[in-house]
Amino acid sequence: QVTSKEGESQCKEKHVVLLSPVGKLKISGCETGLHEIKLPKMSVLPSGAESSAVCEVCEGAEEMTEPLKQCTAWLHAYFCEPARTASLPMPAFHHPLLRRDSFTRQVLWTLLRDVKFGEAVSYKQLADLAGNSRAARAVGGAMRSNPIPIIIPCHRVICSSGQTGSYGGGNLMKEWLLSHEKLQKEKLAY
């Protein structure tokens, strides 16, 4: 049982591990929604053969809540058949950060809504989209505190110079996700 800092109702947190092309993603959530996705640190980029590896739940499958099922289905599609992500239900989020009214929450929701698969946006552009053009640094802070990476695609936020910038899962992970999206988008364009 977990009690949040705000003393809100307790939720029974369940955990699941998804074996993905970028390593093991640790996902937690309750009946109400997702709490977080923890990314593994990558020291080397997976090769082509590994990156098309199966994407499946390897721990916790027996007690998955609906949001966890939706999350793993969405991530499976993201890695294996990205065209399907648009038609899949987005899991509900139940992380305090995404429920409190704040600039961080606004930035994360804007990113989720406006920056599509295979696109990238600069910190400054995202600040503009979220309604505060001078808040590029705050956008960086929001990206660092994103509890649901990949689904809320903070890897798509890059520096104005075109450099990838930092990432919670490490720069290799960010580069892999961006090139995965670029390749998949090119495939879909044919």
Automatic annotation (TrEMBL):
Q: What class of enzyme is it?
A: transferase
Any one Gene Ontology BP term: methylation
Q: Which UniProt keywords apply?
A: DNA damage, DNA repair, DNA-binding, Metal-binding, Methyltransferase, Nucleus, Phosphoprotein, Transferase, Zinc
UniProt-listed Enzyme Commission number(s): 2.1.1.63
According to the entry, every stretch annotated as the Methylguanine DNA methyltransferase ribonuclease-like domain falls at 19-89
Main localization is nucleus
Regarding protein family, the annotation reads: Belongs to the MGMT family.
Protein name, entry field: Methylated-DNA--protein-cysteine methyltransferase
Per the UniProt record, the source organism is: Balaeniceps rex
